[in-house]
Amino acid sequence: MPSDVPDAGDAAIVIDEGLLSPVTVGADAEVTDAAVLGALVAAEVALSRAWARVGAAPDMAALSTALGWVGAGEPCATGDLSLPALAAASVAGGNPVIPLVGMLKERAPLDVRGWVHRGATSQDILDSALMLVARRAGERIRASLRETEQHLAEFAAAHRNEVAAARTLTQHAVPTTVGARASGWLRAVSRARLRLDETLAALPAQLGGAGGTLASFVEIGGTEAAAELPAAYAAELGLAAPDAPWHVTRWPVTELADALVQTVDAVGKMATDVATLSRTEIGELAEGTGGGSSAMPQKQNPAASVLIRSAALRAPNLAATVHLAAAFAADERPDGAWHAEWPTLRELLRLALGATATAARLVAGLRVDGDAVARNLGLTEGLIVSERLSLVLTPLLGKDVVAQIVADTGRGGDLRALVVEALEAAVDPLPGAAHPADGVDVLLDPAQYTGAAGALTDAAVRDLLAALGEERGIRDPDPDPGAAAGGGAGAGGRFGQRAGGGAAAEVSVGSGAAATDGTTPAEQPLDGGDAPVDPPDRRSSAGAGAAGGGAGSWAGAAGGPGPGGGTAGVAGAGAAAGGGTTPAEPPPFRADTPVAPADRRSSAGGRPADPEARPADPAARPADPEARPADPENRPDNNESHRTGGLT
């Protein structure tokens, strides 16, 4: 952003073209000194036009033409006004409005020259001009956010079912999906855009006169005209009408700063994840065009993410300065606090412009290395599902045995063999019944423990479609979640997650997230179609179908209420009704499996699933919500303590 200062020959010396702020290069035209000057002139012309609008002054068409008026909400063409000369002259009075008024009067038609700056104070003009600059810059920021949202929605839907390792405190935690992670970015960006929308719509013009009482305007035009003047002035500038002067009540500036920081935070979080996941040793994500190195030609640096992060690190302190200035807005005109706002707010706008434009480009070219995602998912040799093992196996084997299995696996043991051995030693099924160990492969599959990740991803995409309408060919990835959920009988999804029959139908996940029909991204096109936009609450139509993955049926079968809502001795027969179970992944248990009464641990036993079996009775009594949960000592809520010292 050029900041011009005069030298002895009145030639401009540009001190900031973005050489040390590459994130803003090419994105800050709306906040240059030239843009601010155009807004200052527009603020002066708008006041003259507002006087005419309320009937107190003659027509201002000639003045508007002479001073470069373009239209409401637009900066004026500044013609031969000299930025260096204006900057130099602003030092004496402490702001640029004082010398600007003289320059404009020289250029105004003689018969209306007296209406330039009529009744106003410098703060009226400068505050209004900065709000005009902010609104125009904000519209550019908003456009970049919308573009980012649309790219993120496409990316999240395309990778909805790609299972990856979630990391907490830098370590592998539980399975998630690439799409679920991206849907989190999408929600943050969408929320930031909505807040920015509200803030921009509320940006007011400033008009209060010398002491904020409008006394000069009353004296010039009378009480009625003075009462109408602020709204007329705001209309000429395309800003909101102020409810009162805000010379020392700086909420428009602080709220704008907060919205801008939230915006930069949202894209900064995304950039942080991309930079981390593009590390050589992780390699799950890559920017479309990586940056090079002057010394190491093999490198493909995540340059866009780095630049966005640079903005995210700078923005919060700028907002803090704005808040500090607001708190020190003394008397009826601040002595320095107001002046500190100007460059601070401009730099914050500049960073938000650059960060969001860079984010839109980043997401448009973001790539996933599926092999790297799968490789990293398997690094812990199955322990990525250790939380699930604790939830499912503790009622069968006891807490100590499960902890030993996890420890032995961490020392190089075969997790599957250890689990099978423990189950065979502990569980005595009825003659002819399937053994719980028969379902170990399903239990250990990370794809079976992504919870509501798919539904949360779908909901984020649907929320965007509901807010923005179908744009750029994005299509609802789950056109009928209610039908796909099989009437709420069980959790769906590509990976056939199980839930417990009618009991699971009483469980809801997240904010009404629905189970899905199990199709792959290729079966859910995002590149066209005329699917209707869903209302925001449609995602709840599947009701409680999305239950807690496979853990529900296992825990239910074990004889106690589990995360999936299963009741004692009841396994998850409802999974097939949800549409998510694949032929290669039959549910390990059935609701009508007989259990051995002598040993509670054997209650998980049962016959293999019969494809001809009658489905669970939909009228069956649901699980008692008052039922006493299993002993928490034997069912730890978090299994990460073995490697995080209890931190999660």
Low-confidence stretches: 2-10, 478-648
Oligomeric description of these chains? single chain
Distance between the termini: 44 Å
Mean pLDDT: 78
Task: Tell me what you see in this structure.
There is one protein chain. By secondary structure, the chain is mainly alpha-helical. The protein contains 20 helices and six strands. It has helices spanning 33-53, 61-66, 83-93, 97-107, 122-158, 178-202, 215-237, 251-277, 303-327, 337-364, 370-377, 386-397, 399-410, 415-426, 440-444, 453-468, 481-484, 501-504, 551-557, 641-644, and strands at residues 4-6, 12-14, 163-168, 171-177, 285-286, 367-368. The strands form three sheets. Strands 1-2 form a two-stranded antiparallel sheet. Helix 1 packs across helix 7 (215-237) and helix 8 runs antiparallel to helix 9. The longest helix has 37 residues, at 122-158.
List the helices and strands and how they pair.
Elements (H helix, E strand, L loop, with lengths): L3 E3 L5 E3 L18 H21 L7 H6 L16 H11 L3 H11 L14 H37 L4 E6 L2 E7 H25 L12 H23 L13 H27 L7 E2 L16 H25 L9 H28 L2 E2 L1 H8 L8 H12 L1 H12 L4 H12 L13 H5 L8 H16 L12 H4 L16 H4 L46 H7 L83 H4 L4
Antiparallel strand pairs: 1-2, 3-4, 5-6
Helix pairs in contact: 1-5, 1-7, 3-4, 5-6, 5-10, 5-16, 6-8, 6-16, 8-9, 8-10, 9-10, 12-13, 12-19, 13-14
